[in-house]
Design a protein that fits this description.
Blueprint: H1 10-17, H2 36-44, H3 64-82, H4 88-102, H5 111-120, H6 123-129, H7 136-144, E1 148-150, E2 153-154, E3 167-170, H8 175-184, E4 195-198, E5 203-206, H9 212-215, H10 225-231
Antiparallel strand pairs: 1-2, 1-3, 3-5, 4-5
Helix pairs in contact: 3-10, 4-5, 5-10, 6-7
């Protein structure tokens, strides 16, 4: 029986893509030989240089369509791992919906902007952006166990889409854990402009003005949404 690729060890994808996509320090403590090249690249290279699959590790004699597919596939895999490994059908559906919305006369955003907006408006993603949790997978656990409220209503769906003006709150029994996560966060105090956070009462207001330019500094890898959207058009 074929194994589910969603549950494949995450660090193997890091080795294949040559990037620490989630910025996890645990990777730097691996001692096996297969991880040495990746650890050297992550520790010795300059922090502002990203591994660009459009330029590196591509043969000059390879066909242009093959190179294009390789770069699009790498961009899709990086974004999929970063947002918690969604299925291909889920990402295809988001891509189709964003494409249909972009064709409307009243819409002023591009297909790639709408695609990223659908990922950033998820409840699990917002909890991660607010530094309440160390990863999106941890945010999913909080939601499925009924510890997150939206407008005073308990939400169990990790892919719940937020709207402008929504109020997100977390169960009081987890406030001490969330405060520790905030203090340990590497990206603190970097907060996206589409969120208004009250760290005293641990509440989040969603403002719904997600912008790709404003989010570029919140990713630990080179983000190319256009490659991802074009990959799912096939």
């Amino acid at each position: 029986m074929r194994s589910n690729l969603r549950y494949k060890p995450t660090y193997k994808y890091f080795q294949k893509l040559r990037e620490n996509i989630k910025g996890n320090e645990k990777l730097l403590n691996f001692k096996k030989k297969k991880w040495l090249n990746l650890i050297k690249r992550l520790t010795l290279s300059k922090p502002y240089l990203f591994f660009n699959h459009n330029v590196r590790q591509i043969s000059r004699n390879a066909k242009p369509f093959k190179n294009l597919y390789r770069s699009q596939l790498a961009a899709k895999q990086r974004l999929n791992i970063y947002y918690g490994k969604s299925t291909n059908n889920q990402l295809k559906k988001l891509s189709r919906v964003s494409f249909i919305k972009s064709k409307l006369k009243s819409c002023k955003k591009s297909n790639s902007e709408l695609f990223l907006n659908s990922l950033e408006t998820r409840l699990a993603t917002v909890l991660f952006r607010a530094h309440f949790v160390p990863s999106i997978n941890t945010a999913r656990q909080l939601i499925t166990y009924g510890n997150v409220y939206v407008n005073n209503k308990k939400i169990y769906s990790c892919n719940f889409l937020l709207k402008s003006g929504d109020l997100i709150q977390v169960s009081k029994k987890l406030h001490s854990t969330i405060k520790n996560n905030i203090l340990k966060s590497k990206m603190w105090p970097l907060i996206p402009l589409h969120l208004d956070i009250n760290f005293k009462i641990l509440s989040i207001y969603f403002l719904n003005n997600v912008d790709i330019v404003n989010l570029s500094g919140h990713f630990s890898f080179w983000l190319n949404v256009k490659n991802i959207v074009s990959f799912y058009k096939k």
